[in-house]
Design goal:
single chain; 102 residues; mainly alpha; 6 helices; elongated; disordered N terminus
Length: 102
């Protein structure tokens, strides 16, 4: 991880994000998606650790937050895939499957 700049705005933002997505995992992953590829820019591992210890996060949010910033984890890979644009051929395949079943 690169040298991180301490930014309390990120911490506050993530607390608000956690509260807004408390009962919606996909929504939480969308918030995490904004930060996973920016490791080391706005926050440090210490910031992530501090956030994981905050009582305002659910157990699910704490676990996925830790995993999101663990290099090579399944959670991190899932979130990185959310950042990738869908290939047009993949969209066509999905559309043809739905048309065939409908």
């Amino acid at each position: 991880m690169k040298h991180a700049i301490r930014d309390t705005r990120w911490f506050d933002y993530m607390i608000i994000a956690a509260q807004h997505s408390k009962y919606n995992a996909q929504h939480w992953f969308r918030y995490l998606r904004k930060d996973v590829d920016k490791c080391g820019i706005a926050f440090s591992l210490e910031d992530v650790s501090q956030l994981c210890n905050d009582e305002r996060l659910t157990l699910f949010q704490r676990v996925t937050l830790k995993e999101a910033f663990k290099e090579g984890s399944d959670t991190q890979e899932y979130i990185r895939n959310l950042n990738r644009k869908a290939r047009p051929t993949m969209l066509a395949e999905v559309r043809s499957r739905y048309e065939a079943s409908g």
